[in-house]
Sequence to fold (788 residues):
Amino acid sequence: MVSLRFLLCFLFVSSAYATIVSHDGRAITIDGHRRVLLSGSIHYPRSTPEMWPDLIKKGKEGGLDAIETYVFWNAHEPTRRQYDFSGKLDLIRFLKTIQDEGLYGVLRIGPYACAEWNYGGFPVWLHNMPGMVFRTTNKSFMDEMQNFTTMIVDMVKKEKLFASQGGPIILAQIENEYGNVMGPYGESGKAYIKWCANMAQSLDVGVPWIMCQQNDAPQPMLNTCNGFYCDNFVPNNPNTPKMWTENWTGWFKQWGGKNPHRTTEDVAFSVARFFQRGGTFNNYYMYHGGTNFDRTAGGPYITTSYDYDAPLDEYGNLNQPKYGHLKQLHDVLHSMERTLTYGNISTIDFGNSASATIYKTEEGSSCFFGNGNENSDAKISFQGESYVVPAWSVTILPDCKNEAYNTAKITTQTSMMVKKPNEAEDTPSTLKWSWRPENVDNFILKGKGDSTQTQLFDQKVVTNDQSDYLWYMTTVKFKKRDLFLGKSMSLRVNSTAHALHAFVNGKHIGNQHAENGKFNYVFEKDVKFKSGRNVIALLSITVGLANYGAFFESKPAGITGPIFITGINGDETIVKDLSAHKWSYKTGLNGFENQFFRTESMSKWSVESVPFNRSMTWYKATFKAPLGNDPVVVDLMGLGKGAYHAEKCLTNCGEPTQRWYHVPRSFLNGEGDNTLVLFEEMGGNPSLVSFQTTRVGSVCANVYENKIIELSCDRKPISAIKFASFGNPYGNCGSFEKGTCESSNNTVDILTQECVGKEKCSIDVSTKKFGAPDCSGAARKLAVEVIC
Ligand code: GAL
Fold:
C-alpha cells in the first residue's frame, strides 16, 4: 500500500510535463495524446525578466499551449568564448518561467535567427575569423556553430528542460529558413543542411527537431512553414504533421517606413483555414514583439520598437480585439482536439471558393465552413440547415450544427491606448536639461585615431561591432602651387555607411544617409582645400547590421571607398585617389567611452545656454518614475535622428518614424531620482522630451444581438459611457453615430448601471435587455464606447 501511494504520487508529479513527444503525418503526440497546438513567439531579450511572468501568463490566458523563442548567439557570446546569460539574457530563467506557467516551450536554437535582430544573431567576431563564410560547409563556421549549439543544448539538458527529461520543451529548431536562400550556396548548401541535421540529431535532445522553410529537410528533421498563410503547405515527408512556425501577426517597422498592421480578422482567418486543411501546430510570430533594446535591432533600419502589431503590444498590454478574438478561436479549436487529430476527413466543394471540411470520429463530428472569396458571402446549405459564411472567413461548428465562431465576426472589444503625462510628484512637466558636446576635436582637427592602415576597411572589421560609430580620418598635403588648388574641387566618397558625416579641416561639410534598399551611394561636396596639411574626417554610422539573405554577412557596411578628391581645371578633371592613403581609425563615441551616462560623472555638464539644433550633443536630465504600474515611455519628440524629412513623403509627413521609447519599470528607481542621458547626432530640441505612461483610454464594441460582450478597462475602473446605441448604429470606435432605428430604452443608462465603477462588465446584447427597436427586420447591433 505504501509503495502504491508512493507510485501514485510519483506519477502525479511527473505527469505535469511530457516525457515522450512523437509525431506522425497527423499530429504531434505528447505522452500519448495527439494535440492541437497553439503557440506564440516571445523573445526573452525583447522584454525584461520582470515582465516575463506577466507576458507568459497572458499567453496562457490567451489560449496558448506553448511559447516559442529564438536563442541569440551574438548576445550570449559577444566575445569569443566569453558568455553572457545575465538579466534579459537569462535563457534558463525564461524557460523556467514558461515551465512555471505550465506551458510548453519551442526552442529555436538556430543559431541563425534572422528576427530583425542585429546581424541575424551572429556575432561579428565570427565574421572576422580568417577564411570565414557563414551557413555553408566552412570548417571554421561549422565548428563555431556546433560549439554554440552544443553549449545551449547542454545548458538546457542540465536543467532538465527538454520534454524527454520531464521538462517543457517539446520541439527544437536547427538553422532557420535556409531553404529560402539556399540556391546561391549550390552543392555546399545541400551538404551543409545534411550536416546541420546530423549535428542536431547527435545532440540527442529526445524531442523532434524542426527546420522551417526547408523542403529538402533530411529525416528526421521536420520541415515547417512560415508566412501569412500556410494552409497550402505540404511538408516533404508524409510523416511530418502540418506545422506553421511563423504566422506573422503583423510586421516589423523600419526607419522612414509606415506603421505595419494586419487585421485581426485576417490573422484569425489564416489560422482557422490552416486547421480546416489539416494543420496541427500554429505559432504566432510574434505573440509579443517587444523592444529592440541597446543595439540589438537588425537591419539596416529596423526601429527600436518591435511591436509587430502582435496580440500583446510592445509594452505587454492586450492588443484588442486581436488578443481576445484569437483567444476565442483557440478555445474552439481546443474543444475539437479529438476530432481534429483522429477524425476521418471529408470535404465538400460548394464552388466560388466555398467549402466544408468535416472531421468525423465515432463519437462525433466537427466542421469548418470556409469562404476564400474576398468579395462575396457564401450561402451554404449543409445537412438541412442553411448558413451564411461572410467573404474571406471561416465558420467553425464543433458539432457540425451550431456556429461557435466565425473569423470575420468580432465580439471582442477594441481598446484604444493613450499616453498620460508623468504624474509623479515634484516632477515638472518639462525636464531640466544640462548638456555637453561630444568631443570631436581630435578627429576633425587632428585626424587622430587609435590605429592606422593604408586601406579602407569594412566597418565591421574595425569595430567588431563594439559601436555603431567609426571615424575614418586621413590627411592630404598640397603644395602651394599644386595643380589642384584654387580649382573647383570636391570630395567624393563612395559609401556604404548607413549614415555619414563629413568634416574637412574641422568644418562639417555635410551628411548623407543611404536610402533604404540602396546602400551604395556617392557622397560628393565641393570643398576648399588649403595649401599644406588638410584633415579629412568621416564619421560612419551603422543603423543595424543586415540580418537576411544569402551571404548577408559580407554585405558591406561603412566606407569601403574609393574616395577621391577631384579638381576641374578648364576642360580637364584631375582626380586624386585617397583610398590607399594612410587612414586612421577610431571606434565609438567619446561620450560612450567616458561613460557620460553614468550618474556619477556630474562634472563638465552645463546648465547654461542649453543648445537647440546642435549636432553631436549630449543632454542630461533627472526625473521621477511615473506613479502607478502602467508601462513607461519616453517621448523623444523634437529630437533629430529618425525624424522623417524625405521630400517624397507619403505618410507620417514630418512625424518621426518612432516617437515613444519603452522604458521598462525595472530600469527605473521607483522612489529616488532617475537620470536620462541622450545623444543627439543630427541636432534637435530636447525641450519637448517627456516621460509618459501608456494605458487603455477607451474601449469600444460593435456587436450583433444575441452575443455576450465583455468590456474591460484592463484592471482600471470604467469611468463613463461615452456612446451607446442599440439599433443600427454605424461608424468606428471614437466616431460612432446613431442610425435610423434605435431602442427607446435608455441604453446609456443601462450600461452606466452595469459597468461604471467596475473593472469589467459582461453585457448580454439582447432585446430583453435593451428593448426591440424596429430595424425593418435587419439584425440589431449594439455600439458602445466606454471611457476608462
Ligand atoms: C522570417 C524570419 C523571422 C523574421 C520574419 C520577419 O523570414 O524567419 O526571423 O525575420 O521573417 O519578421
